[in-house]
Specification:
heterodimer; A: 119 residues; B: 136 residues; mainly alpha; 85% helix; 0% strand
């Protein structure tokens, strides 16, 4: 039963991580471009490195969490465990995400207010 | 030995919670685009990016929380208990979702206010610049 649960769990976390990562990759590019004053090459480079680091961190964390599972015997137990673990991963992702956005805001405030530099 | 209804409870709980979160996030972030455009003063690219990032964070946070509180610790054997427990859980989650919604709205209004104040400063600075250069 545990093996089956692991497969479902890994599949779910993989889907969530990759999907969220791609969204961040596409939408975060503008910010880095802004911070580097329009240097496209360096931006793409940094963005790709950040994406790779993000995948490594999250998939590694998700895989690591497997070692803390209890043995499951019934379908109900399996569903409970999977949902709790996936929920934990998603909450961790959310916390990391909001920290990142806070850091970006902080950096851009220090360089120049991100709202004002259009004029 | 009667069969426990916990599994059915989960099967009812999950779709309701996911649909609820999707509906709230969809409504909120469809309408927040106007705020974002206002905050970033018509700079569409960065406004839409920020909107999307906030939306993803909203989904992650709320769905994660919904999954985390899914577990029902006791065994359910009859329909009445099932209804009671489900309504407590879903009601609690809706209230939490409502609080998050209003918190987000507060953030948008605050951002717009700050952006407007800054715009005023910029305009004032420009006007004073012009005045001093006109005097010279």
């Amino acid at each position: 039963m545990n093996t089956f649960a692991y497969i479902i769990y890994l599949f779910l976390t993989y889907l969530i991580t990759v999907h969220v990562g791609l969204i961040f990759y596409r939408n975060g590019r503008v910010y880095i471009l802004r911070l580097l004053h329009g240097d496209e090459k360096l931006t793409d480079f940094i963005n790709r490195i950040l994406l790779t680091g993000y995948y490594l961190l999250n998939l590694g964390y998700a895989a690591l969490m497997i070692s803390f599972w209890k043995t499951v015997y019934t379908w109900t137990e399996m569903m409970t465990t999977i949902s709790i673990k996936t929920g934990q991963i998603m909450l961790t992702l959310a916390v990391i995400h909001f920290c990142n956005m806070g850091i970006i805001l902080f950096i851009s405030h220090r360089h120049h207010p991100i709202v004002n530099n259009k004029n | 030995m009667k069969m426990s209804l916990n599994f059915i409870a989960y099967l009812v709980y999950l779709p309701i919670v996911i649909l609820l979160t999707w509906y709230v996030a969809h409504t909120l972030f469809k309408n927040s685009k106007a705020f974002m455009l206002d905050i970033f003063r018509g700079n569409a690219e960065i406004a839409l990016s920020t909107n999307k990032l906030f939306e993803t964070g909203f989904y992650l946070l709320n769905l994660g929380y919904a999954l985390l509180i899914m577990e029902i610790a006791r065994e359910i054997y009859d329909g009445r208990t099932l209804m009671e427990i489900l309504s407590t859980k879903i009601g609690g989650f809706s209230i939490y979702l409502g609080i998050m919604l209003f918190f987000n709205l507060y953030l948008f209004f605050r951002g717009r206010r700050i952006s407007r104040e800054r715009a005023k400063h910029v305009v004032v600075a420009k006007v004073t610049d012009k005045d001093t250069s006109g005097d010279r």
